[in-house]
Amino acid sequence: MQDQKLHKLFGKPTLGRNRKTERKHALRPAVRHLLAQSNMSQKVNLLDSDGKNIENQHYYKIRLADGSELGYAPSGMSVTSAKAICAPMPSNAGALFRFVPKDDSKNGVPWTVGEVGSLKGLQSREDGTVLKLGLSLSSPPTGGTAALGWYDSASWGFTGKQLAGNRVALYARNKDAKDVGLIVVDLGRNESALVEDRSGDCIPLDCQFVRMAPITAKF
């Protein structure tokens, strides 16, 4: 009689298949939450033009949509303390770049989305010299525009996001450790430069990392 009264108040307990189904549905939100946490914890690597991980043991060309490549460029533009500015060069005239992670002691270290890494470039000049410098955003005076330049010192770094077609959205770090966009500006006289995007939209540089050759000696 007592059980019958309880059943009237709270309903009969679910038995057999219904109880299993109830338990299964009760677990689903928890399982989905764990799976979501697992997916968030997995790091996603940036990919080169062939769909392979961008790693610290290979040289790359950084190629833009029009076929030009980033490299060392003579220019009338003055960049604070820089040896040279970084600008788009004709195809096959750009620098060889290598990704430098925080821990560069091992080979095969991939560049993950959102990770801050440095970029160093190597380029042979017409006089036979070889330039080996770090790429970094400049530190302009108040009100000035920061530009990409080549430096002896360590870079503030870069971050990237993956785009469709194995392309990379490249961002530069500024002196305040913030990601900023990069745009190409025309300086006239067939010269151009890469400067910080100041539109407020943080527009990144749309580019591809084209794998060229293994690195035999790091610099």
From TrEMBL:
Residues 1-24 are annotated as: Disordered. It comes from the Eukaryota. This is Uncharacterized protein. It comes from Armillaria gallica (Bulbous honey fungus). The lineage of its organism: Eukaryota, Fungi, Dikarya, Basidiomycota, Agaricomycotina.
